[in-house]
Amino acid sequence: MRKRPIVLLLSLLISSASVQTSAKDVNKPLYKDAGAPVEKRVDDLLSRMTLEEKVYQLNQYTLGFNHNINNLGEAVKNLPAEIGSVIYFDADPQLRNGLQKKAMEESRLGIPVLFGYDVIHGFRTVYPIPLAQACSWNPALVEQSSAVAALESRMSGVDWTFSPMIDIARDGRWGRVAEGYGEDPYATAVYTVAAVKGYQGDDLSSDRRVAACLKHYVGYGASEAGRDYVYTEISRQSLWDTYLPPYEAGVKAGAATLMSGFNDISGIPASANHYTLTEILKNRWKHDGFVVSDWGSVIQLVNQGVAADAKEAAEKAFMAGVEMDMTDNCYQRHLAELVKEGKVPVANVDDAVRRVLRVKFRLGLFEHPYTKEVKQEERLLLPESLRAVERMAEETMVLLKNSDNVLPLSGMKKIALIGPMAKNRADLLGSWSAHGRAEDVCSIYDAMHREFAGKADILYAEGCDFEDESRGGFAEALDLAKKADVVVLCLGEKRGWSGENASRSTIALPSVQEALLAALKEAGKPVVVLLANGRPLELVRIEKLADAIVEMWQPGVAGGKPVAGILSGRVNPSGKLAITFPYMTGQIPVYYNHRSPAREGRQGRYQDIPSTPLYDFGYGLSYTDYKYGDLKVSADKVKRGETLTVEIPVTNAGSRDGLETVHWFICDPVSSISRPVKELKYFEKQLIKAGETKVFRFNVDTERDLSFVDSDGKRFLEPGDYYLMVKDRKVRISVE
Ligand code: BGC
């Protein structure tokens, strides 16, 4: 009995609280309810928006100082509170939070702005360039580096990275070859998935993750003659065989967004291509995020000759399926007008806005629009991030030559360190290095001093510049070489020689660098050449003179440390090429997965140079010796839909532990359409201790691994014989 008043009081309190809550809920729009499903929130918000507010969501502006010299940033001031997105050039969250406050508090509906940026291989902790990453054959490292990039970006005010760049490229003259994962569609697809996982994790709303953007959809890597922004001639068959697979994998992995390319795809520019943007991406692959144009790729439809003016360009890009216009204001100026004129249905605008809002909700921006302002030391260049860069860089480097086991250097008391890259730091960052700084990088010179402290003296001379023809420094360098036991010659490319708008007519290094090598040979000492570059190089003359060559790529902030470890033997190189190194530039395009020619043997060859590349796709040496056993298949006859297993034992017959990658290829020798001479279908990297044997295994799913697509993406598995191949070994299986 005595309990009753308390119970009554409690129930009164509870009911008044629930009255208050529901009164609050009635006033709070559904889209602001964090507990409601995203689709309901999107619908609710959309139903409240005016056409003008919708159009704002489909435009991207810029904020902060733009470092990309190819793109001129527009004036920052006076950004409207309603804008959808900005490219954020700052490295700290304050500026972001300022603009976000304006959006949240001054716009009618309080829709947060989405902040994007080009975080291509790291934000401040710069990783090896993606082409190098691909040579690691270790997708776990790619996932890890992408996760570090995501953490640094999100904590610095960036919600969305314009990465990964997954354009298949077979032409080293094209500067952007550095930004992708090489020439193979399967390998690129695997790395794409790893990058998307690393950026996005399982929960985009985490304050350590960012939305990914697959770019440049699609075929940009086929740029004619390796020039940028030009036409690409891509048959539908090649589109499906070569250029689309990484995108399909990335979409399946949940990539939030894509960026449409600059290139014209056989007459229909990528940013006005309904087939790729709508029929494939949205209708078949069911992508429910959005597509942003590349910088200016909407207005450039005028230059490309498919639109008369900005208004028509807006109509074409939008109706093809580009939801957001990056910086060129075509949508801002014309979309509402196009709707009013009946040229663009409002339903399409709604669909586009819905896609953009969906990504914003998934990123948790409505609940957490601001970035916590923590000190740089708490988010950038964290010790574990730096350790991860070094570990990755070690696995990306490719030992191309090692005559008489000159490497690792042992018993050398005097090392002559020569060349324009030896003391350089900035160029080791590579292109698109976001907020990376030269001062964060350890030069080869510093790393060699540390690595060989107490073991060898390091003598230094620059020898020559990267490209200045002056040979004034050769004599000093030669004197030094004569005094030393070995010459380590650091050659390569400046970072600006690759990346956007950085095409070169030849992939050879400037002649002065090759001449320096020739001059140093006169000392009669072994010469080890270290190469830091952003593209495959023409190495035919260097190969003849060098005793050893290490392709160290552009390793980011790890700088010279990993390569110094390779020279000392602390690190056993394990990288293998993810792109073919032509014998000479004139062979381009040259790639491993080509079709068979009509005539073989001595016909169809160049008269003046060999027809095979200098270094094949998948090539790379180690300090240990791997012996491959025989291939063993679980069944040599299978029915469609069945699986089988093929194995190969690999023994480390040397005296050092090593990481070895096995590449599994298939060949379909007779088919209703011609197929490549071989196609990579699987790869695996394992640690094999000295003396140990490891078995590498490929579980073949006949439908997935032996089928091919036709020119409209339809998959076929034809009965007949197929080969499964590893190096020079092959085994035949037949599908009934
Ligand atoms: C590049 C893109 C980049 C964009 C934004 C363009 O010029 O082609 O790759 O994401 O600029 O900076």
Automatic annotation (TrEMBL):
Short name of one Pfam family: Fn3-like
Residues of the Fibronectin type III-like domain: 660-730
Catalyzed reaction equations: Hydrolysis of terminal, non-reducing beta-D-glucosyl residues with release of beta-D-glucose
Tree of life domain: Bacteria
An example molecular function term from Gene Ontology annotations: beta-glucosidase activity
Signal sequence, renumbered to the chain: 1-23
Keyword set, alphabetical order: Glycosidase, Hydrolase, Signal
The keyword Signal is assigned to this record: yes
InterPro entries from the UniProt entry: Cellulose_Degrad_GH3, Fn3-like, GH, Glyco_hydro_3_AS, Glyco_hydro_3_C, Glyco_hydro_3_C_sf, Glyco_hydro_3_N, Glyco_hydro_3_N_sf
Protein family: Belongs to the glycosyl hydrolase 3 family.
UniProt protein name: beta-glucosidase
Source species of the chain: Bacteroides fluxus YIT 12057
